[in-house]
Amino acid sequence: HLPFIQDFGPYQVFTVSAGTCGVIWDTSMGTLKLIKESGWHKYPKEFKVGESIPILVQASFIKRMQFKTKDGIAMEIDGTLAWRVDDIPLVAQQTGTVDDLRSAILFRAKAELSRLCKGFTREELLPMINKREDSTEAKKNTDSSSDAVDIDADDAEEEEEEEGEEERKQQDQTRTSNLDKLYAYIQDTCIEKLQTASNDADYGVKIISFSIAGFRLLDSSIIKDLAEIAKSRLKARAIKIQGEAKIAEAESKRLIRFK
Questions:
Q1: I want to staple 207 with a disulfide (CB 3.0 to 4.6 A). Which of 12, 123, 127, 195 is the partner?
Q2: What phi, psi does 121 have (nearest 5°)?
Q3: 8 Å CB contact between 147 and 155
Q4: From CA 21, how far away is CA 34, in angstroms rounded?
């Protein structure tokens, strides 16, 4: 936006806000002058006062940007883009305003981010993390299927449950590590592509960072289906534990008979 200007005879007085660089044009010479000191400034009316250019880091927010994954799942993403003006004279000579520049950068960021996200599946962008199954309930079901369970069988079942829990933790850690790497790739690639596009368009800006705040599913029915899949996996795991516990119990009783 243009700074506030007051006329005083042959002069004009205007203010340059902190965090911005003032821009004035010498119409007689056709030259550009930059004013980096904030505060009030007085110049003859022959000078044309232009829009002040922000020199601090700017934040542009991507909110609920929708896209479809590689496997056709509707999702949305939130993120934050940080950038700053790197070439003040170039920005000052553009025909649009700073708000136009901000909109153009955000538009290109969304386009590049959408292109990147569409190259991955829902499972890659938003994997299901295992939740600890109700092993207590599984154990109750196992106990009720027989009159007595040998101590050795209990130990075998508990050992199997511990191994299963450790396996799930390792799987979740692997998923989390892979997800961090994927997010880092998307973020770094988005910065690189957006910087190239900005240079090609003579935006005069430096892309500093982009961070992903998170992904979300749009279709509630998909969320329900994923919950059902998770329940099925937990149920299958519980049945497996029960079966292995029964085998351990039978083996323990067999060994007792031979003692």
A1: 195
A2: -85, 165
A3: no
A4: 7
What digits encode the pLDDT tens for the residues 105-162? 999 999 999 999 999 999 999 887 544 443 444 344 434 333 333 444 445 445 555 5
What whole-number distance in Å separates Cα of residue 23 and Cα of residue 43?
Answer: 12
Angle at 85 between CA 80 and CA 89, to 5 degrees: 160
pTM comes to 0.70
- From the list 210, 212, 47, the residue with the least C-alpha distance to 125 is 212
Spatial distance between the Cα atoms of 58 and 81, rounded to a whole number of angstroms: 8
* Nearest of 102, 92, 55 to residue 198 by alpha carbon: 102
124's CB contacts (< 8 A; 6+ apart) are: 182
Token pair for residue 97?
A: 């305003």
Lookup: tokens for 33: 């002058």
